[in-house]
Amino acid sequence: MADPADLIAWLLTDGRTVPDVAALCDGYCRRLMAAGVPLWRATFHLPKLHPEAFGAATVWRTDAKTVDFVPVSFDLADSDQYHRSPISQVHKTRQPFRGRPGDPTQRARWPLFDDLAASGATEYWLTPIPLERKVVSCISVSTRDPGGFQDRHLALVAATLPALASVIEVHLGRTTIEDLLDVYVGREARRRILGGQIKLGAGDVVHAVVLMADMRDFSTHMETLPRARLRDLVQGYFRALVGAILDHGGDVLKFMGDGLLAFFPTGADEPPSAVAARALAAAQAVQARLTAFNRGQSGNEAPSVSAGMSLHVGDVFLGNIGAFGRQDFTVMGPTVNRVARIEGLCRPLGQPVLLSADFVALMPDTPVLDLGRHALKGVGEQTVYAPALTAAAPAPDAA
Questions:
Q1: Which fold has domain 199-387?
Q2: What is the pLDDT of residues 365-397, one digit of tens each?
Q3: 5-184 maps to which CATH number?
Q4: How would you label 132-162 residue by residue, b for 16+ Cβ within 10 Å and e otherwise?
Q5: pLDDT at 65 over 80
């Protein structure tokens, strides 16, 4: 067997400082080849602490230019694809699996071997990676060498796995923190928190477009719908909102019951008018997605779901607020107060989307419907508008 010392030394030094797990796996595989392992393809199956996925997997090949980890959803564990894969056997036995894709009997048992054999693979080996987590993580190696792997090749891989596992743990720790902060506090807050802006009261004044959304008739739905139907309705509603906001470059800062607060920071790289255009496009995309969701639910006799939304622009304080023992990274200030008050006019004015005068001033060429001046609690009178493309007929009491 080739001496694994050089590869182990790389893992425990430079391997700890590569940008991410993908770069680690790429460097590891290329050094296996340099050590004489006739590697053609490798896969890595790793755990993931995330509300939308229990793992992540990637396929590395000698002819691939990039290595990307793809989230593995919770549904996969119940799928036929999983139960008919070698990884399900390794998860059960916690023992290595070795197979020949060209063997007709093995191809009948493992559908994966059809694709491997068609690509010229002659041998496949899958083995657990000794991570500390309860989920069994695995690495597979495949070769196109006519003779397959020699035992010394696989022994070299096995000898490096403890070092590989320890470095993967380091990278997974970083990734887990980033993933959870992205999901629970938002991308901009994650960037600032990991950048060290965590002192209580620390923050910055940021100029941004702020979006407020609130579900219509949520209290009625709570009282009348079965729990499962309510859950599906709320998930479909938030999927439409969050998806549209993220797709247009916004950041969801906070969920507030059946509503949410999002913002689109302005900056030197993009004029404020372009940021406003993205925010307005996001609000209009939300309405389109909710319409599509309701259309898809009509056959199930589910009630329709709708949202009132408002857009305003101004300075907000973005930072860490709260008290010792419980803190929140969020935005606050008059701009947030105004956008919330404007959203409260959506129902009485019969409009799905309302815009402040400051927001409209950023986009003077955008057609809007002037809905007049309205008294807002604690704010005074404000002129509000509706975007012409999504405006409804004014409510009778709009005046």
A1: Alpha-Beta Plaits (3.30.70)
A2: 889 999 999 988 888 888 999 998 655 555 544
A3: 3.30.450.40
A4: eeeebbbbbbbbbbeebbbeebbebbebbbe
A5: no
